Amino acid sequence: MRQICLGSPIPRSRWGLVNWWTSLRTLSSMPRDPKKPRRLIAAGRAYLWTLRHSHGVVDGVRSCCETLTLYPQPTGTGRPLRIVFAEGPSRYVPGGAPLGSGDVGFARGPDLNLHEPGAVRALLDVASAQGWQPDGQQVVEIDGWSLLEAAAAMRAEAAAPASPTE
Predict the structure, then answer these.
(1) Residue range(s) defining the domain that contains residue 1
(2) Which of 38, 115, 135, 162 is 20 to 30 A from 98 in CA distance terms?
(3) What is the average per-residue pLDDT within 58-79?
């Protein structure tokens, strides 16, 4: 039998595989509903955010899209920000395995996982720095690829260990 990183062997029989897969899914299932909006606090303001994956056909080719939407709170106090990552040349927006859900990035460059609150915060900060303001009522849609490099750099900077002071 082959081994996986969890240490449990992969069974060879069909029914054994079904039971193994069910137990694996139970072990790795997310503790929250992925469709339920999540809460984020940035610059003293609360936002609810959602992430949606969609499919479309562009020039006869199936393509994927990740849409991150931030809703200022309380409801009605500002316009939502929609950040869209559409699949394109040298860009990836996976629809599942082998890459994870929510991953977006350049083929030879930075990437982000849009399920991570820190990545969402970095995208919001970059959008705000580029002029987006929550004032108003109309939804604002921004091409996420224009924000990705700066947001990924912000995440890398935040993750870097602080230099020791002497």
Answers:
(1) 1-31
(2) 38
(3) 87
